[in-house]
Structure formats: structure tokens, C-alpha cells
């Protein structure tokens, strides 16, 4: 759908690549919770969690490419966004989601090294990815870009549902309950 | 039961507050009567600005109309011969491209019109950029957003403050 957008005819390759990196990141947001919760057919939780790590890195790379592609196209617009002074209402959500996804990735990579109590780690990772998904959706839906508005809404809705489904499956709220004798920690 | 038993200090404070409430509106009305306020520079308005773009008949092939007025702050008198520079991401190029930039002058009524290529959404919004950047008045950068990206015209109005 996005590849057929008439807008692409009036854009440089690097701008197009930057935009599509953003779309890839949005698609990975849908995939990430499904993987880690073992909700994808053919990927039970043990396998899904391994893929979750790698696709998480891919998500970070996509976000970096998204920002880099836009920066190459118009440095002052990206500088404004990163400094939270952009005139557009959606830039701030994208930048918030970017920092949250970096934070969630650092937690993911440093799970052993940071040696956080598992409860704290779960709450922090869950809180950060919630900011990522909510921020990204608010960012994406307000943008007039290459994506079709219907496919964009469907993808955003699916990402929110997937996050909710993963929280339910993984009983994420259990981390908030003070040391219950829960044997279902993942 | 509570009784109204104000101290002298409280009575004085209350009196001063009510007097202020009566006087303050009187103080703010003359400020409004002083006239037209200058247009502030918009956030992001100066992005991809290229100083000194040439005065042109039209930018590229044309087909999209950017227009507006330039007036003086205070009395609102039209400013003739004001140089307005215009740029945008269009069907013919990015904002940073030199050929996307051009300038025009206002007529005797302070009106400017620029024929330019169709503006297309860039960085999430279909928008244009305008600058007043000459001597005589303070520099102002505007960044109007189109209501619909299918629009074929966009307006922006300047009220300038003498430099």
C-alpha cells in the first residue's frame, strides 16, 4: 500500500527509506509482544523469546534508520523534533517512543548484567514498551505520509491489541502484586 | 457558627483586590486599542531557509497559488514593495533544493501572490514556508499548514513591526 503512494514520486530515495524504516518499526511493534508471549503459531514462548531479542534489535535499528533518513532530508526539522520544539503535534510522541524503545532495549540486553530484581525489571520493561506502543500510535496516526490511512489504523490497532494480549498471557500485572506465590513468572 | 470578623489587614487586602479588579480591565483595554499586533515567527518557520533567494515570476512550473498580505503593526497600513520569500516541499523538489525557493514583492495594497508547484505533504504535514527578511521591519518566518493536502492554494498574512 505505502509503496504505491503518489507521495513517493516526489521524494528522494533516502527520504523514502527513512519513511519505510518507520513503517518497519511499526510492524515490528506488532510482532514483539506476540513473539515474547508465544502467541504466534509455530513460535512457542521458548523460541519466541529468542526471536523477540533479535527483532527487538531490528526495531532499534529501524528507529535509528528512520531518524537518520529524515535527518538527511531535513536536518532542522529533525533537530526541532529531538529538542521537543517541533511545530507538528506528532513529533513529540515519536521522540518519546524512541527514547522508551532505547530504554526497553537496554533493559533487554542488560537483563543479566543489570542484576535488577526480576519484579522491577518486568515492571520497567512493561512500562517502557507501553510508552513505545502508545507513543508510536499517536505519532503514526497524525502523520500524513506514505502509508494508507486504513492500513495504518489497522496496524496501530493490532499493535495495541497485541500488547494487551501479551500482558494478559504473561500476567504482567502480577509483578505489581507484592511477592505473591506466583509460579507463573515467565 | 462562624462569624465574619475580619482583621484590619484583611479588610485592606480585600479592598485593594477589588480596586485592582476594577482598574485592571481599564488598563488592558487601551493596549488593545493601540492596534494590530505584529505576527510572531512560527515554530519551524525558518527551517531550510536559504537567504537571498531571487525574485521570480513563478517558482518552477506553477499551478499552486501562495498568497497573502503584508501590513504594518499598529495602524494596519498595507506595506507596498515588501519582499516575501517562499519555499516548500512540492511536486518539483524538496525544501532544501534551491529551485524550490523564490521571492516576490507586494503590490500597492500590500498583497503578494506567487505561482508555484503543488505543495505535497512532507514530514507528516502539507505546509509552506514564508519569510519577510528585509530591512525596515523585524524578520518574520511563517509556516502555514494546508487544511487538506488536495488544496491548490494557501494563504499567509504578515503584520510587521518596524525594526
From TrEMBL, chain B:
PROSITE patterns: TAT
A single MF term (Gene Ontology): oxidoreductase activity, acting on single donors with incorporation of molecular oxygen, incorporation of two atoms of oxygen
InterPro entries on file: Intradiol_dOase_core, TAT_signal
Protein name: Twin-arginine translocation pathway signal
Organism annotation: Kangsaoukella pontilimi
Position of the signal peptide: 1-33
Record's keyword annotation contains Signal: yes
Keyword Signal: yes
Keywords: Signal
Amino acid at each position: 500500500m505505502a509503496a504505491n503512494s503518489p507521495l513517493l514520486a516526489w521524494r528522494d530515495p533516502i527520504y523514502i527509506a527513512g519513511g519505510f524504516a518507520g513503517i518497519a518499526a511499526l510492524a515490528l511493534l506488532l510482532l514483539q509482544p506476540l513473539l515474547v508471549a508465544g502467541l504466534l503459531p509455530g513460535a512457542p514462548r521458548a523460541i519466541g523469546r529468542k526471536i523477540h531479542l533479535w527483532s527487538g534489535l531490528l526495531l532499534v535499528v529501524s528507529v535509528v534508520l528512520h531518524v537518520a533518513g529524515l535527518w538527511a532530508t531535513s536536518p532542522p526539522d529533525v533537530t526541532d523534533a529531538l529538542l521537543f520544539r517541533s511545530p507538528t503535534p506528532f513529533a513529540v510522541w515519536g521522540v518519546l517512543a524512541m527514547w522508551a524503545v532505547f530504554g526497553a532495549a537496554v533493559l533487554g540486553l542488560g537483563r543479566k548484567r543489570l542484576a535488577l530484581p526480576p519484579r522491577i525489571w518486568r515492571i520497567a520493561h512493561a512500562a517502557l514498551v507501553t510508552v513505545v506502543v502508545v507513543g508510536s500510535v499517536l505519532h503514526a496516526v497524525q502523520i500524513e505520509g506514505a502509508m494508507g490511512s486504513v492500513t495504518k489504523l489497522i496496524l496501530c490497532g493490532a499493535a495495541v491489541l497485541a500488547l494487551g494480549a501479551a500482558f494478559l498471557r504473561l500476567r504482567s500485572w502480577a509483578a505489581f502484586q507484592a511477592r505473591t506465590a506466583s509460579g507463573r513468572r515467565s | 457558627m462562624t462569624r465574619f470578623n475580619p482583621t484590619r489587614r484583611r479588610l485592606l487586602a480585600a479592598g485593594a483586590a477589588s480596586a485592582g479588579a476594577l482598574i485592571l480591565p481599564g488598563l488592558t483595554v487601551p493596549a488593545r486599542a493601540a492596534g494590530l499586533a505584529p505576527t510572531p515567527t512560527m515554530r519551524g518557520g525558518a527551517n531550510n531557509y536559504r537567504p537571498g533567494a531571487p525574485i521570480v515570476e513563478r517558482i518552477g512550473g506553477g499551478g499552486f497559488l501562495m498568497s497573502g498580505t503584508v501590513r504594518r503593526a499598529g495602524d494596519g497600513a498595507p506595506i507596498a514593495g515588501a519582499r516575501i520569500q517562499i519555499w516548500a516541499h512540492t511536486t518539483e523538489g524538496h525544501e532544501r533544493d534551491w529551485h524550490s525557493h523564490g521571492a516576490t514583492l507586494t503590490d500597492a495594497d500590500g498583497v503578494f501572490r506567487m505561482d508555484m508547484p503543488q505543495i505535497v505533504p512532507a514530514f507528516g504535514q502539507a505546509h509552506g514556508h514564508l519569510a519577510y527578511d528585509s530591512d525596515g521591519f523585524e524578520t518574520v518566518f511563517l509556516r502555514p499548514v494546508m487544511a487538506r493536502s488536495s488544496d491548490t492554494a494557501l494563504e499567509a498574512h504578515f503584520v510587521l513591526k518596524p525594526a
